[in-house]
Amino acid sequence: MSASIDPPPQGSPALRLHRQLAAIWATGPGLQRLAAVNHSVVGLRFITTAFVFFAIGGVLGMLTRVQLATPDAGFMDPETYNQVFTMHGSMMLFLFAIPMVEGMAVYLTPKILGARDFAFPRLTAYGYWCYLFGGMILTGALIAGVAPNSGWFMYTPLSSNVYTPGINADVWLLGVTFVEISALTLAVEIVVSILKMRAPGMSLDRMPIFGWYILITALMMVVAFPPLILGSILLETERAFHLPFFDPTRGGDPLLWQHLFWLFGHPDVYIIFLPMAGVLSTIIPVFANRPLVGYRAIVVAIIALAFLSFGIWVHHMFTVGIPHLALAFFSAGSAIVAVPTAVQIFAWLATLAHGRPRWDVPMLYVFGFFFVFALGGLTGVMVAMVPFDWQAHDSYFVVAHLHYVVAGAFAFPMLAALYYWLPLLTGRMAVHRLSVPAFWLVFVGFNLTFFMMHLTGLLGMPRRIYTYFGHEGWIWLNLLSSVGGFIMTIGFGIVVIDLLAQLRYGRRVRRDPWRAATLEWAMPIPPAPYAFASIPHIGTRADRIALGELAPSLARGEGYLGFARNGWQETLGVHMTSGTPEQLIVLSRPTYLPLYTALATAAAVLAMLFQFYLLALAAALVTAGLFVLAGQGAGLARDYGPMPVGHGVSLPPHTEVAGAPPWWALIFALVADGTLFTSLVFGTLYLWISAPNWPPAAAPEPDLMLALVAVAALAVAASAARGSLRSLAAGGSARGWIALAILALVAAVAADAELIGGVAPHPREHALGATTAALLAYVALHAGIGLLFLVSNLLRLGAGFVSPRRLLDLRLTRLWLDYTVVVGAISLGLVLALPSLVAMLAARP
Amino acid sequence: MSARPVPTNRLWWLGAGFGVWCSALVVLYALHAIGCAFAWSAGPLRLGLGLVLLGHLGVIGWMWRDVATASPDSGFGQTGTFLHTVVVWTLIAAFSATVLTLGPSLLLTICM
Asked: Which of A704, A801, B40, B102 has its CA 20 to 30 A from that of A318?
C-alpha cells in the first residue's frame, strides 16, 4: 500500500474542506443507506425507532385504560388484556426507554465530547439492527396474537411451559435478549468512546457533566444486563429443553428468576434516569445563565447512585419470605439512595436560584420533571419501608409510583431534551403556540392518570386485573385515570404535530440558538457526518466554551485533523484521564456487514423461537463467521509510524499502540461476561442453599481426571497465546504457537463435552445437573470462541494486518484465553466441589 | 499541558469505596443465608456478621486514611486534584452507606 501519510497543506478554505470530508464520511443514497455506520445516522434511527415503539406502547397503555375505565368492561378478554399490558410494559422499558437513552447517547455524546464518531461504527450499526429486529419480533407477535402475556417481568412459574405452553413467553425471552445484545454492545462502545475519544485537552475534570452521566450509565449497563441475559437463557433452556432451573419440583427455584431479573431491573431504573439527569444538568445551566453548581458533588453522587442502585434489588421482593434482617439491608439501602438523588436536585435548584433563569419550552418540561419526580421520589421512600410495602405490594399504588419515577422522570426530561436539541437537527425553533399547550396537556393528563392510581392502590386494587365488579369504590378513580390518559395522549399528539410543524414553519435559527457553551453547538446545523471539520483543543471546562470564536475556526480546519488524508475516517484517541492526544484512530467506512450479521442473528433467534434448533445452530455459526469476517479488514495493513495530526503533533495509528479502543472494549466486554459468569455461580449456590428438593436422589460424581485435563488444556492454550505474542514481537513466527493453542482448545472442548455427557443427576432430572451442565457449557463456549480468535489471528497474519508493531490481534487473543482459563478453573473447581456441598446439605439439621 | 497525566489505573479508585460496600452487602447477605439455612446459633452468626461488617468498614477507613491524608500530587495538575477530591468523597459516602445500610440491620431478629 502506497498511501501518503502527509496531510495536504493547512489552511484549506472551509468549503473545500467540507466537501473533502463529506465525501469520505457521507452515507450513500438509496439502498446504501442500509450500510450506514455513522453515529449521527444510526443515532437518529435509534431515536426515531424508539419513538415508534413509544407510540405503539402508548396505544397499548390507552387500551388498558379503556378496559379499566368502567367495571365489567367487555372491551378486551382476559388473554388479550394480558398480552396488551405485558407488551405495554415490555415495549416502554426495552423498546423505548433504554433504546432512547442509547440513541441520545449515540447521537449526542461524540458531538459534546468533540469526537467525529464512536469507536466502533459497525458495532453501533449492528446494535441498531439487533434492536430493530428484536422489536419487530415482539411487535409481530403482538399482531399475531401470540405476544408475551406473563407481565413485563415474566415471573416463573407463570412463564414456565407448564403454565404458558405457547410461544408467548419464548417471544419475550428471545426477543428481549436480542434487544439486550444491542444494549450491551452499545454500552461497551460508549464507555470506550468516552474514555478514549474526547477532544484533546478535555481531561476528566473538564468533561461536560453530560459525559460523566453517560459514562456511568454505560458502565451500569455493562454490569446490569448480564444477569437478565443469563436468566433469559436459563428460562428459555428450561422451556425448550426441560432443564429445571426454576422448577421447584426438580430442585429449581422460581425466586432465582426474581433475583436475576431484579439484579437487572432495579439498576435499570437508574440507567433510564441518569442520562435524563444528564440532560437536566446540561439544560438547566443554559437557561439559568450560570454554570452548574456542584460539579464535583454531582460526580460523587452519580458514582454513589450507580453502586447503590445495584444493592437494592431485593426491595422488589419484600413479600417473598426473606428473613427480616436481610430485608432491612435492602430497605435501608432503598431509603439512602435518595441522598445522592437529592444532591443532584439541590444542585439544579441552586443553579436556578443563583442564576437569571429564562423560560422557554425546555424549561416547562424541566418544571414538569421537578414536580413529578418529587412525588415519585416520596412514594419511593414509602415503598422502601418494608411494612408499608407489604400493604401496597402488587397494588395500583406501585403502578402509580413506577410511572411517576420511570415514566415521569424519563418522559419530561426527554421532551425537554427534544425541544432543546431539535434546533441542532432541523435548524428551526419550535412553534410556541403548539408547544406550550402540548406541555400542559401532557402534564395535567399525566398527573390525572397516575395520581389517581395511588388512591385506587390504597383502596386495594391489585395490578394486572382485567376488570373489577364496581362495588369496591374504584369506579370514579379509574374513570378519571382513563380520562387523564386520553388528555395526556392528546398532549403527545400535539407534540408530534408541533415537531412536524417545526420542520416547515419553525423560525430559522443560526448556530447555538440557546447561547449554550458545549461543543455540539460548535458545528454546522444540521451536523455534517464528520461532525467537526477539525477537532478542537480544550483548554477550559468543556461546558463553558466561547463558541462564537471556536466554531468558525474549527470550520476553517484550524483544529486537529483539519484535512482529508487517504480517504480515511480519522479521529483522535486521547489519554483517559488527561485528554492528551496519543493515537490517530482510523474508523471503518459504511458497510452492509452489520445488517447481514444482524439478519443472521435474527435468523438464529427466529429458528430458536420455532424450535428449529439445528437451523438456529447453523445461523449462530454464520453469525460467528460474519464477526470473524468483519475483523479481516479492520485496522491498517502496514506499519505507518507517527503521522501528523495538526498543531505540530504527530501520532501513531491506533493499530500501533497498546491502549487502542479494541483492547479496552474487550476488557469491558469481559467485565460484562464476568458478571454473567458470577450470576451463574450465584445461581448455582442459590439453588444449593435455598431451593426445595435438595439434595437430589442421584449424587454428582464428576470425573476428576477429565476436569484436570480441561483446565490443563486451557492453561496450555493461554500459554501458547503468550508464546505467539512473544515470538512475533521478537520478529519470529507466531503460527506454530497458534496451532498449539488451537490443539489445546480442541482438547479442552472435548474434555468439557465429555464431562457434560456424564453429568449426574441428569440435567433434565434435577437443577443440580442443569446448573452443572450450564457451568461446563459456559467453559466450552468460551473455549470455542477462543478458537475463533485464533482462526482470525491466522487469517490476519496471512493478510499482513499483524506485524511486530501491530500486535493488537494477538494481545486480544491472549486476554480472551487468560479470562477463559480463569473462569474455566473456577467453573470446574465448583463442579468438583458440588459433591461435597451436596453432602453438607444432607448433614444439616 | 505541563502536568503529568494521572495514570489510567488510578480511575479504579473512583469505584473502590463503593466496591467495598458491595462486597460487604454480598458477604453479609450470603453469610446470613448460609447461617440460617444450616441453623447456626444466633449468637455466633450475629458475631460473624458483625465482624464482616467491621472488617469492611476497616478497609474503607484504611483507604480513606491512605488517600485523604496524602495531599494530591501537584504534578498531576487540576485533573489530579479533581480525582483526589472525588475519590475522598466517594470513600466518605461509601463508609456512611456501609454503616447506615448494614449496621442497624444486624440488631434485628436473626433468621425470622
From this structure: B40
Question: Positive or negative, the Cα torsion across A607, A611, A612, A617?
Answer: positive
Please give the single-letter amino acid code of residue A144: A
| Inter-chain residue contact B18 with A308, CB threshold 8 Å | yes
- Give the integer Cα–Cα distance in Å for A838 and A700: 8
Length of chain A: 845
Pairing of strands A643-646, A649-651: antiparallel
Question: What's phi and psi for A462, nearest 5 deg?
Answer: -80, 160
Q: Is A332 on the interface with B (CB under 8 A)?
A: yes
Q: Rounded to a whole number, what is the distance in Å from the CA of A833 to chain B's nearest CA?
A: 16
Q: Which pLDDT does position A194 carry in this prediction?
A: 97
**Residue of chain A whose Cα is closest to the Cα of B100:** A332
Cis omega (within 30 of 0) for bond into A642: no
pLDDT above 50: residue A565: yes
| Count of pairs with CB atoms under 8 A, one residue in A, one in B | 121
- Contacts by residues A6-11 (CB-CB < 8 Å, ≥ 24 positions apart): A6/A565, A6/A643, A6/A644, A7/A563, A7/A565, A7/A644, A7/A646, A8/A563, A8/A564, A8/A565, A10/A557, A10/A562, A10/A563, A10/A646, A11/A556, A11/A557
Express each pLDDT in A685-734 by its tens digit: 999 999 999 999 888 889 999 999 999 999 999 999 999 999 999 999 99
Give the contacts of B18 (CB within 8 A, at least 6 positions apart): A303, A304, A306, A307, A308, B90, B93, B94, B97
SS3 category, A247: coil
> Which pairing describes strands A569-574 and A581-587: parallel, antiparallel, or unpaired?
antiparallel
- Tell me if residue A531 falls in helix, strand or coil: coil
> What is Dmax (Cα atoms) for chain A?
85
> pLDDT band at residue A8, thresholds of 50, 70 and 90?
low
Partner residue opposite B97 with nearest CB, options A299, A336, A690? A336
Cell of A845: 439439621
Which residue in A325, A336, A679 has the most chain B C-beta atoms within 10 A of its own C-beta, making it the best mutation to test that interface? Answer: A325
Distance from CA of B31 to the nearest CA of A (A): 10
Residues of chain B found within 8 Å of residue A201, distances taken between Cβ atoms: 1
As a whole-number percent, the residues of chain A with pLDDT over 70 amount to: 99
**How far does the CA of residue A218 sit from the closest CA of chain B (Å)?**
14
ipTM of the complex, rounded to two decimals: 0.97
Which site among A329, A386, A576, A663 would you substitute to test the B interface, given the most B Cβ atoms closer than 10 Å to its Cβ?
Answer: A329
CA torsion angle A405 A408 A411 A417 (round to 10) = -90
Q: Is the pLDDT of residue A11 over 60?
A: no
**Block residue for cell numbers 504457537:** A737
pLDDT tens-place string over residues A761-794: 999 999 999 999 999 999 999 999 999 999 999 9
Please indicate whether, in this complex, the C-beta atoms of A844 and B105 are within 8 angstroms of each other. Answer: no
Task: Look at A323 and B14 and tell me if their CB atoms are within 8 Å.
Answer: no
From CA A327, how far away is CA A322, in angstroms rounded? 7
A843 touches chain B (CB under 8 A): no
Residue ranges of A 292-321 with Cβ closer than 8 A to chain B = 296-297, 299-300, 303-304, 306-308, 310-311
pLDDT for the residue numbered B2: 64
Query: Which of B4, B8, B26, B87 should one mutate to test binding to chain A, selecting the residue with the greatest count of A CBs within 10 A?
Result: B8
Which chain B residues are within 8 Å of A674, Cβ to Cβ?
none
Instruction: Give the span between the Cα atoms of A560 and A583, in whole angstroms.
Output: 12
Q: Tell me the pLDDT band of A7, cut-offs 50, 70 and 90.
A: low
**8 Å CB contact between B87 and B67:** yes
Three-state DSSP state, A37? coil
